[in-house]
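pinning this so it doesn't scroll away 📌
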Amino acid sequence: MLPDRIWFTGVPGSRWSGVAQTIEQLPGMNTTDRTLEREYNHHKYSGHKGAYFGKGMEFPADPNRVDQAWSESGECQVVKSHEWIDHIEELPEKDWKMLVYRPDQSSFAWWHEAGGFQIGYPNYSAYKNSANILSEIVRTNQMILEHACINNCTWSYFTSEWVRDNFKLKVNVDNVIPDMLVTLIKS
C-alpha cells in the first residue's frame, strides 16, 4: 500500500526527475500537480513534470505547505525538491523518502546539458552561477550519502526489478543509468 507522500530528493542533474516520472506512472499516484507551466523538455527527454519545491522555485521547500501544488487530494503524491535532505527529520515518519544519488561531476555536466540556467521549469536562478550550483551539488550529495549510511540504506540501480521489489508493481524502466543509484526509506 502506498503512503500519502513520497518525499523525493536528488541533486540537480542526477536524473532524478526521470525516476520520479516513472514512479508517477504507477497506479495510485496523484499527478494533479502537472500543468503546462510546470513542464520542461530537453533533447528527447521530458525533463521536468509537476511541481518542484525549493529556493527561488514556485513553492518553498516547506514540508507543511506542499498541498497547494495539487489540484486534487487523495492518492500518493511524489513531492520533489533538491532540498528535502535539509528537512529530512521534519518529514512525516509514515511517508516514504526516496533518495537518488549520482556523482557530483556527472550531475553537474548533465544539468548543464539539460539546459542549466536556461531550464524553463523549475527556476534555478537562486543558485546564481555554475560555481554555486556545483558547490550545492557536492554538499547535497554528501548529505544524501550520510543520511543513507546512518539509516543503513541499500543503494540499487533503478531498474524494472527494483520497482517491482519496492512497489510490488510492474513498470518498464527503459534506460538504466550506470552511475545513478536509488534507495527508498519506508516507515
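📌 and the second one:
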Amino acid sequence: MGLYSGFALLSHLVRTVVLVAVAAIAVVLLIDWLARTRRLNPFHPLARGVRRTVDPLLLPIERRIVRAGGLPSSAPIWALVGAVILGIILVTGIDWLLGSIIAASIAVASGPMGLFVLLVRVTFGVLQLALLIVVIVSWLPISPYSPWVRWAFALTEPILRPLRQMLPTFGALDLSPLVAYFLLSLLESAFLRL
C-alpha cells in the first residue's frame, strides 16, 4: 500500500504543479492579449514588460496563424490552448505511467498469468492510444510523416486500411478509427478470457 500511496501523492503533486503553471501562463497571456487588442494601454509598464518577454516566444505561433489567414492578436489564445492541451497530456501521461508501474508490480507478483494479462493490456492500450493520436492529428495541420506521430500511423494503418475499404463513406467523416477502437476492445476482452 505504500507504493500506491506514494504514487497517488506524486500524481496529486504533478496535477497541482500543472494547474498552477497553466493558471500563471493564462494570466500572462491574458495581459498580452489585452495589450495586443488595445483593451490595455500597450505603453503601460506591465503590458510592455509582458510583451517584451512573451512576444518572442509567441512569434512562431503568430507566423502560423498569419499564414493560415488569422489575426496575429489571437496568438496568445492559441498559445493558451496549446498550454492546456500540453498540461492534459502531461497529467494523463504521468497517471498512465504510474498506473502501469503499479500494474506491472502486481503482474510480476501474480506469476505467468499476470504477466500475460499485462502484456495483452499493454499491447491493446498502445494500439488504442495510437488510434486516438491518429484521430487527433487528422484534425490538426500535422503531417502523418512527422517523427512525433509517424509511429501511430505505422501501427494503425494496417488496421484502418481494410476497414476503410469495407465501411461505407459518409462524406469527409471516417468511421474506421471508431470501428477499429471497438474491435480492439472486443479482441482484448476475448484474449483476457483465455
